[in-house]
Amino acid sequence: MAVAAQANQEEIIQALNNWYLAENKDYETFAAKYPMNGELKAQEAHIQDMLNWCEQENINYTPTSFING
Prior knowledge:
mainly alpha, 5 helices, 0% strand
């Protein structure tokens, strides 16, 4: 979310690929490639909103499929 708030579409895709396609997921290495300078803290409200929505909609795991709403 923090990367998406700062980057363009191409950079977002690259960041997602760097994380999800990595054989060894090492957050320190990933974070060094994408310094956020306080952006992570700014995402707390968005994460809380997402958690509240998941709880309201009874979403317990992902991916979740919605059919007809």
